[in-house]
Design a protein that fits this description.
Elements lengths: L7 E7 L26 H18 L7 E4 L12 H10 L5 E2 L10 E7 L26 E4 L3 E3 L5 H7 L9 E3 L10 H10 L7 E5 L1 H4 L8 E5 L6 E3 L2 E7 L12 E7 L2 E6 L7 H7 L4 E7 L17 H13 L3 E10 L9 H8 L4 E3 L4 E5 L1
Parallel strand pairs: 3-10, 6-7, 7-8, 8-9, 13-14, 14-15, 15-16
Antiparallel strand pairs: 1-2, 1-17, 4-5, 4-17, 5-6, 10-11, 11-12, 12-13
The chain binds zinc ion (2 copies).
Length: 372
């Protein structure tokens, strides 16, 4: 009998400006587990009810971090050994090792979205006093993993951290996808590096060697070059940089997406990119992903020139279908959309109502996803 996978939770933090308690709403068991499969009318109604409850709760003065669980336990089986073992066995020894404090169970992976917008959102985040509903404002795309591993550091990340009570001093490592200014903001990187206590050592900053030339030189920053398809370790994670389908003018860098693997869990963070390059898709064939975070810059529209380095929803659907047929996506894999262009998507509530029933989860700033 295959082992059952650990539980999965999709948790959502709301920004409410007057502090204090949190509330939990639990959807029917296995509700998100079969997001990719057709839903019954009952399931769909329950999902929409959960969303409505969430939106209602936003209006309550119940704390800056409002914790709302809207999904429950996963049900897919895991391959024996898990991706952590297979990465080390298949790819040789990890390139480098870095340690960070462990404050959670070994297998738990927490994601916190600290920006979900493409480059055409404002680069200044609203002041804390301004109440925001989900997706009303999007910072530049960034994601925090297990409270210490940050993917990309654009100009809004510090403001979003402040809003969701994230301590920048807790960031031990930053992974850089590429040097477009919505992903790389030197003064924010320096601020995070300088926030660390001396005893913790320098901030490790990982990226393509050519991209690292644009990262500030500082005693508080240790630059670590990433080789394409060369795994390295950060705490409990095996991290692999893969080539993306994206381009930075006047730079010799290869733009990267990242595969994050830990005991029993595997995640692809794929922005900025359009179609996966062929070699990247071949590399992924031996993986089994619990989640993909896709660049979803464009919505359903056509004719946007960004399509050559970004995805629209049709492309994402095609890739999901193919990855699922190759068994690269686990049956209960979560498909999360980020890097949403300001003018190419409807308001977030509408986006959820359209996309959640087909298994696409549009991210928003402050959204947390917990794999247990
Ligand atoms: Zn971008
Ligand atoms: Zn870009």
């Amino acid at each position: 009998m295959p082992e059952r996978s650990p539980p999965f939770f999709l948790a959502i933090f709301f920004s409410c400006e007057r502090l204090s308690v949190s509330c939990t709403v639990r959807c029917p068991r296995s509700f998100f587990c079969d997001l990719g499969a057709p839903k019954s009318a009952g399931d769909r109604a329950a999902l929409l009810e959960a969303i409505d409850q969430g939106m209602t709760d936003v209006e309550k003065p119940s704390g800056r971090r409002h914790f709302l669980k809207v999904a429950s336990v996963g049900s897919a089986s895991l391959a024996a050994g898990g991706p952590f073992e297979s990465a080390n066995a298949g790819e040789g020894k990890p390139q480098e090792e870095s340690k960070a404090p462990r404050s959670r169970r070994e297998k738990q992976v927490d994601l916190l979205f600290l920006g979900t917008g493409a480059a055409n959102w404002p680069r200044r985040y609203p002041p804390l006093q301004k109440k925001l509903s989900r997706g009303e404002v999007r910072g530049m795309s960034s994601m925090l993993v297990n409270e210490h591993l940050l993917v990309d550091c654009g100009p809004t990340v510090l403001d979003v951290m402040k809003r969701y009570d994230v301590n920048p001093a807790g960031v031990s490592d930053i992974l850089l996808t590429h040097t477009h200014s919505d992903h790389l903001h030197p003064s924010s990187i320096e601020a995070i590096a300088n926030a660390r206590d001396d005893g913790l050592g320098p901030l490790r900053f990982w990226g393509d060697p050519a991209a690292l030339t644009q990262v500030p030189d500082s005693d508080h920053i240790e630059k670590r070059p990433v080789g394409i398809e060369q795994p390295f370790t950060i705490d409990a994670f095996t991290v692999t940089g893969l080539a993306s389908n994206h381009y930075v003018e006047d730079s010799k860098e290869t733009c990267l997406i990242y595969l994050l693997e830990t005991a029993g869990r595997s995640l692809l963070y794929a922005t900025d990119t359009g179609w996966l390059p062929t070699h990247t898709s071949i590399y992924l064939r031996k993986k089994q992903l619990d989640a993909v975070v896709w660049d979803a810059t464009m919505g359903e529209g056509t004719g946007d020139p960004r399509i050559f380095g970004h995805n629209d929803l049709t492309m994402i659907r095609h890739m999901n279908q193919t990855l699922a047929s190759q068994k690269v996506l686990k049956p209960d894999a979560k498909i999360i959309l980020t890097h949403l262009a300001k003018n190419l998507h409807p308001v977030h509530e509408m986006l959820e109502k359209r996309l959640l029933p087909e298994g696409l989860i549009p991210a928003y700033d402050g959204m947390a996803v917990v794999f247990e």
